[in-house]
Amino acid sequence: MYDAFPEEKVIGVYRMTTPCLLLRDLDVIKHIMIKDFDSFVDRGVEFSKSGLGMNLFHADGDTWRVLRNRFTPIFTSGKLKNMLYLMLGRGDIFVNYINEICNKRPTELETHSLVQKYTLATISACAFGIDLDSFTPENMKTLETVDKLIFTSSYVIELDYMYPGILKKLNSSLFPKKVTDFFDGLVKTVVKLRDGMPTNRKDFMDLLLELKQQDKITGPKKQENEKEKIVELTESLIAAQAFVFYAAGYETSATTMSFLLYELAKNPDVQEKAYEEIDTTLKKYNGEMTYEMLNELKYLENIVAETLRKYPLVEPLQRNAAIDYKIPGTEVTVKKGQTVLISPFGIHNDEKYYKNPEKFDPERFNPENSKERHPCAYLPFGVGPRNCIGMRFAKLQSHVCIAKLLSNFRVTPSKKTMDRMQFDPKRPIMGPHNGVYLTFVPRKGGKRATGAPRCSTTPMGISNTRGTADALPCSFNFSILQIARSHGWQMVWGARTSGPEESLFTVPEGLQPMAVLLRRFFITKNFNYWKNIRVIGPKPVPLFGNIITSTLRRKNIAEVMQKIYLEYPEEKIVGVFRLTTPTLLIRDLEVIKHVMIKDFDSFSDRGVSFSKDGLGANLFHADTDIWRVLRNQFTPIFTSGKLKNMIHLLNDRGDKFLREVNNICLQKNEHEIHSLIQRYTMATISACAFGLDFDAMADKMEMFNKIDKIIFSLSYAREIDMLFPGILKMFNSTIFSVELRYFFEDLVKTVINERDGKPSNRKDFMDLVLELREKGEIKGARRSDEDIETTLELSDSIIAAQAFVFYAAGYETSATTMSFMLYELAKNQNIQEKLIKEIDDVLYRHNGDITYEAITDMIYMERVFDETLRKYPLVDPIQRRAQVDYTIPNTNVVIKKGQKVFVSTMGIQHDPKYYPNPEIFDPERFSPEKVKDRHPCAYMPFGIGPRNCIGMRFAKVQSRICITKLLSKFRVEPSKNTQEVMQFDPKRVLIGPKNGIYLNLISRNV
């Protein structure tokens, strides 16, 4: 019927004597299933909702909302991880069972009934704690009997089509009494065996028993004045949920995997590619099938998706109108109580959405192919709020089974294999008619060996013709080329394996000219990129592009980008090369406004691709979907109210810091200010982030200084990514050391354990995070109704990543900013005197107390702070990666998806066009009358747009308290070692002073 009316949005059909509307138009489907969901909440089969009828799939609107709200957390990634060992155990038993049948020979097997044994065993273990240690007929008999009762069609539903509502009037159920009795008895037995309490199995029954301890459960209210719906969590209700979990997790997964194996047998090239992915990923994880390993099987995920496209099991999707509803874009009104139908099979096999739909092609679900597709063109799990709650479980169960099967067997067509799949007309869901027969061919050696040598890194180095060498330390799990500058330096290309032999790749003398040409091609192949699209920019140096002085650690990258920025004053954009990678430097403020604000969704990632495990999942580096969740949930942590609660911590550490400064000033006046201020920021961030009390800061500095060097010293990881874009992510490598990860994970675990996993009364960062942690999962804001809501489990690892970035941002950036600020005050005594007067006056008005209101009153302090960050913007350049092909406004230049754009904050903030005499330190630039006439993108020390610095307020409060306390007791003056012109450290990630900042601290004697 769907195919017969290709031009129609809706089609009128009859189910028996009942008129129904078949929806064809995807935008109409989107309205029904998502946008106007409240008008079509119910599935529309009316029968007695007692007993098993109270299950999540069939429950009516109000009851469904309660159940869905409370059961959704059961299917989080964290809960599924806890069930994985059950799936893996059954998977091993399953593989052994097939091995015994095959006895090392190719053997024809009926795949559907075979895979059913695995799904029966896993669902029995994960739902009820029934451990089947073998697939003997005795173990399977009872469960297979129940399966026949559930999945064989009856005429009960057809009776409801002929006489709508008759089942409900007669208080009749869809489910045979034998099925109800079976699940009621099973649940009662399990509950009794567990004494009504959760055990440590972490299976579905455990999770339901955790809920049962509440006796009653409630759901979210749609409106403030709506009465809260309450559902009593009885054993009967638990049995209903256990039933639907069993029904959905057993047969649907078995059927999907049968179809999948059928297609792999018919498409050996696809099968081989899947096998290679599984084999490679298993080796990477030392043969262990972990949750993370399974998540990396992207091609297998594509295969599952394509299988469900070609064979969507639940057909048709059905909804009942809760009100009279006019179909958008038509004059048709669906009356309250009428049913609408959707044919996933029709849509999934429509040439309009899937070319050559009969072809099995997993590449349809590559990200680039999927992103252009309408969200309602793929509906195997339904769509909208009432989609399949167990989708993640089904995928994980299937991934485990297929990964284990393909690791041990190859499947090929047998003499009984159908040329074209036929479907069983007697089943309520789509299934194979007369089974799926395939030949299972054992792979030689069974499970693949995983102990092959792994590549490790030779240090990247530069050796000159005099025989000396500079080692550039870096650490990756893959071999890299050792490349050196040809200007008086030897080229060294090396790699090393974990075996005893070390090899250095040398080129035979006769082939050296060819090798030189190949090398030159490799390191210059992109260098005409900008010229070809008529973008002006500096001439690149082979291999190093336009950042040779930065790569060789002679200048900070901010100075390099500022120089390029200032060289092209008339250009909106400048084409540059970071090593061999073309990157666009944006000069025009309106273009910057588009990229960073107006068209933010096109440039939402920062653009360093590496493993986002561990510390990589932090708010600063996270990719867009995860970033949105983190930003949405962590923004309230930095409100003025939360910062006020931290003032006592900042003041307390400030007082201790001042006493320490007093003590050291008794010995001498000259001090290295940067390292001195670091003591204050170290103490405050440790208190505000982790609740660590530094009564003896000097004893702790050595440990934290070591961490500081690891974080803020440049490594060559980014340069490797510039040479080989995406290589870090490809090899699951990170830019953070293992030592750093372990430090923060251990620190967070220690703090959580000390607080018993719950917020204390300190009101610090960890308290606020622990409040979020009690939710289990956090969610991000949806940008539109059709957006799928991203959820994130707030694990200890995720908390550690946020604690790390809070520490990194709040410690070093503030210390460096205050160091530059004191340097400028020492060089500009008139500004210092004006600031001291403001501090004294404000403190006098506030009775000497440094309150939140007191520091807010320091208007001139704010201008001094802003001018410091204008002259010394710490994070430079700002970087973004294009998510789509993007045309730069008012130009013909297209940034390709995946390419990066830069903004030179130092260049803009030292441009005389925006700041006359930019080298002069002048806080009056930030008076209201001057600020209001300035372009918003002319000042970006904290970034700009949705992805600006979330901790900006904290940094300002932290810095103002420190400067206030210092200048209330001391003046700063240049010393004999003070730099005349500030020089920046080329070996630091941020802009920082080279060789420190030396100033005299002179007591004011007040």
TrEMBL record:
InterPro entries: Cyt_P450 (IPR001128), Cyt_P450_CS (IPR017972), Cyt_P450_E_grp-I (IPR002401), Cyt_P450_sf (IPR036396), Insect_CytP450_Detox (IPR050476)
Highest taxon in the source lineage: Eukaryota
Keywords assigned by UniProt, alphabetized: Endoplasmic reticulum, Heme, Iron, Membrane, Metal-binding, Microsome, Monooxygenase, Oxidoreductase
Cofactors named for this entry: heme
Membrane topology: Peripheral membrane protein
Locations listed in the record: Endoplasmic reticulum membrane; Microsome membrane
Residues given in the record as heme binding sites: C949
Catalytic activity: an organic molecule + reduced [NADPH--hemoprotein reductase] + O2 = an alcohol + oxidized [NADPH--hemoprotein reductase] + H2O + H(+)
Gene Ontology cellular component list: endoplasmic reticulum membrane
GO MF annotations, alphabetized: heme binding; iron ion binding; oxidoreductase activity, acting on paired donors, with incorporation or reduction of molecular oxygen, reduced flavin or flavoprotein as one donor, and incorporation of one atom of oxygen
UniProt EC number: 1.14.14.1
Gene3D superfamilies named in the record: Cytochrome P450
Family stated for the protein in its record: Belongs to the cytochrome P450 family.
Name of the protein: unspecific monooxygenase
Organism ancestry: Eukaryota, Metazoa, Ecdysozoa, Arthropoda, Hexapoda
